[in-house]
Amino acid sequence: MLKNEIDEIESKDPAFLLYSSDFLTGVAGFTDDEVGKYIKLLCLQHQKGCLSEKTIRLFLRVSSLEEISDVLEKFKTDENGNFYNVRLEKEIIKRAKHLKHQSINGKKGGAPKGNQNARKQPENKPKTTQDPEKKQPENKPLENEDVIEDEDINKNEIRNVIIEYLNGKAGTNYKPTSTKTNEHINARLAEGFTLDDFKSVIDNKVADWLENPEMSKYLRPETLFGRKFEGYLNQQNTAKGGAAKNGTKSTYDTGSFEGFHILD
Predict the structure, then answer these.
(1) Element (H, E) at 181
(2) Which candidate in 67, 149, 173, 242 could, as Cys together with 253 as Cys, close a disulfide (CB 3.0–4.6 Å)?
(3) Is the dihedral of CA 154, 158, 161, 163 positive or negative?
(4) pLDDT by residue (tens digit) across 110-123?
């Protein structure tokens, strides 16, 4: 972990930011036990830095890291083989820099005041006023820093959840690191679709295709999250036997497979 320049600040900081929405999205595929282990490892990393295999096994009381393989997918390894969570590392460093900046300003008696002589105005001249239309710089809170970086992290978490959800529903084994898969998911996210929309599409097409040998092979990211995504999202969900939930006939179960040739 890159902590050299912030060790002094970090040693005094008993907390780190946890974005509740991002966290819940990231652990959507976890069991309660896995969520608990994940939180414990995050807290331990905050206190101790990168974690060795031995430290993790002793702390979580597991005999092998294979027992927590899903949890450890949230962590990367450094050059020494120790584990760390990338998002937490960034938040620790970002918060430490923020606190250090506040500390420096506090020792100076607040924010820099600039040239004191330049601020004085002759008594015979009216005081200047700020242009109300000119946007003044503001001190943004910590939560608003590195917005682009946070958005990238959020997309990674969302992609992981989407693929985990698909694999769980369809019995597949797709990887969230696939370039082609990421292209399709990113394209739909850029169009404004949400995590719930992806789950709805997966649910709709699993209901339609899972038990059909001809169609189950299309329960894959490039088909589900491709150019027909919005159509899949807005279709009527089907129950077993091909009947839609509202009692109308499924648009899929016609026997003709209209549009079949463009599923690829």
Answers:
(1) helix 179-190
(2) 242
(3) negative
(4) 555 555 554 555 55
